[in-house]
Amino acid sequence: MSGRKRGSVAVVGAAESDLGLVAPLTSPVDLIAQATMRALDDCGLKLSDVDGLFVAATQVRMGPMALAEYLRIKPRYFDGTIIGGSSFMSHVTHAQAAIEAGLCEVAVIGYGSTQRSVSRAAASPREYNHYESPYKPILPISAYALAAARHMHQYGTTREHLAEVAVAARQWALLNPIAWEKEPLTIEQVLKARMVSYPFTVRDCCLVVDGGGAIVLTSAARAKTLKKPPVYVLGTGDVLSHATISNMPDLTVTAAKESGEQAYKMAGVKPGDVDMLSLYDAFTITPILFLEDLGFCPKGEGGRFVAGGAIAPGGKLPVNTSGGGLSYCHPGMYGLLVMIEAIRQVRGECGARQVKGCEIALAHGNGGVLSSQCTVIFGSEATL
Amino acid sequence: MTDLSKQSPLGVYVDYCKKGQLAYQVCTDDNTPVFYPRTVAPNTGSANLEWRVSKGLGTVYSTTVVHAAKDQPPHNVALIDIDEGYRMMSRVEGIDPMQVKIGMRVKVKINQGDEKQLPYPVFTPAGDAE
Question: Quick one: which of A282, A358, A224, A328 has its CA closest to A16?
């Protein structure tokens, strides 16, 4: 993705909507609009400043239209790219290009879901595919389980390694006042929980909750005039690999390798420069794969890398400090919330879970069944 | 060359299933196996796709056991690398689903489906049958 300039745009506002279980008959757009106004309040901009709208949601087929109608605004630029949970990272890339090209100046990226209230089947219905559906995989869970099983076979990764990811996420969540999960979790509890799709128990799988969020991006010049310290977009990378798990070339290698390389190149940073990671943890295998593919450990070593609390509070690498999709919040397409935590870490707003001296944060989004991989590297003023 | 006004790739595939056969395509421009069946080949974009019948032997690439509901027994879902050089999702039957192992040799059998379900291929352990 050449043509865009490192640090040309910044995130100036970020907010969640109400999370967890919302009132009956709440619509996904209620949540997106609520988050949008909170994100605008966060930076001191007004609705009338917004001229770019980026929305993706499984319950709202034409997201930008629905949000524009709800807020009664007429954005000059809009984008409804939907590639699963990583959609919003790709929106950052597109928003940066649009802002640089003068197509808009203040871009809002929004998401909302009521999947806990209406059920996941209703919130995210699946298309029939005769080459997969007759075998009755529980999608997306079984697809990730197939990747985990292959990783275990090929590299000696164990169910205990997978459980380490869930336990680390829970320990971080206990430091996050708005996390869904409030009780401690042990490796033993993860292993003995209800089996869903081997090797995953329900505790290897993300939460199914309501929620949404929004972030506001603008040019670096305008960002400097606003309330909060700008969080600059240093680099991004977006890659599509496949749509169905039967068409993923190698289940142990994701396209995060390519999206990461693109983002690192644009940002001019190396994995060793990154102070914290926000990795899409729909399932316990995904942070393991992304730690490998994003260059934090060699291929195959992800399981051993996370062992012994290495990514938990006090460990060697802070990963998913919000508590992640496994313990903080996962409203179906979780990528926007993945970025919000990285943004807050760079701002230094994370209280008890704040990573000291966090100047560079990497947010990685995943969509479909390891299908779309999108990386965004954020940096503070000091990194420019 | 597929004439979509007369037949679809899935339609032809299902017709082979009805005859008890696992079919796939080969792009004759670059001699690459193509699965799932398509109107044009990936990479080349060529419409020169020839139908072939697989010998029906493959190796388990990965496997999971799905616990769908309390009142149903767990079932297997697997990815199978077919000997002719392509991969497909399927189910290995005739064995405890937890005993389906990566690397296991399997052979195809066609489940003929019913009024609501089109026929589809499943697999059983190949054992000494190869």
Answer: A328
Does A153 lie at the interface with B, CB-CB under 8 angstroms? yes
Report the gap between the CA of A42 and the closest CA in chain B (Å): 43
**A146 reaches B (C-beta below 8 A):** yes
For chain A, where are the E strands, in sequence order? Answer: 9-16, 52-55, 77-79, 106-113, 195-197, 200-201, 211-219, 231-240, 276-279, 360-367, 372-379
Residues in chain A closer than 8 A to B75 (CB atoms): 136
A56: Cα within 13 Å, side-chain hemisphere: 20
Residue B129 has pLDDT above 80, yes or no: no
| pLDDT over 60 (residue A2) | no
Q: CB-based contact (8 Å) between B91 and chain A?
A: yes
For the question of an ipTM over 0.95, the answer is yes
- Predicted confidence at residue A222, as pLDDT, reads 98
Average pLDDT, chain A: 97
- Decide if A197 and B65 are in contact by the 8 Å CB cutoff: yes
Q: How many CB atoms lie within 10 A of CB A258?
A: 17
Distances (CA, A) of A252 to A281, A379, B50: 16, 30, 31
Q: Which residues, other chains included, contact A374 with Cβ-Cβ below 8 Å and sequence gap of 6+?
A: A83, A86, A89, A90, A93, A236, A237, A238, A239, A259, A335, A364, A365, A367
Token pair listed for B67: 């616990």
* Interface check A251 vs B, CB under 8 A: yes
Q: What is the CA radius of gyration of chain A?
A: 19
Distance from C-alpha of A53 to C-alpha of A71, rounded to nearest angstrom:
11
Cα torsion through B50, B53, B57, B63, rounded to 10? 70
Q: What are phi and psi of A115, to 5 degrees?
A: -65, -25
Model confidence at A280: pLDDT above 50: yes
Contact with chain B for residue A17, Cβ under 8 A: no
Q: What is the DSSP letter of B117?
A: S
Asked if the Cβ–Cβ distance from B67 to A194 is below 8 Å, we say: yes
Helix (H) or strand (E) holding A262: helix A256-267
> A282, A214, A291: which is closest to A32 by C-alpha?
A214
* DSSP at A352: G
Interface residue of B89, B102, B118 to substitute, partner A, most A CBs within 10 Å: B89
* CA–CA separation, A363 and A154 (whole Å): 27
Q: Which of A253, A254, A258, A252 is nearest to A238 (CA)?
A: A258
DSSP state letter for A308: G
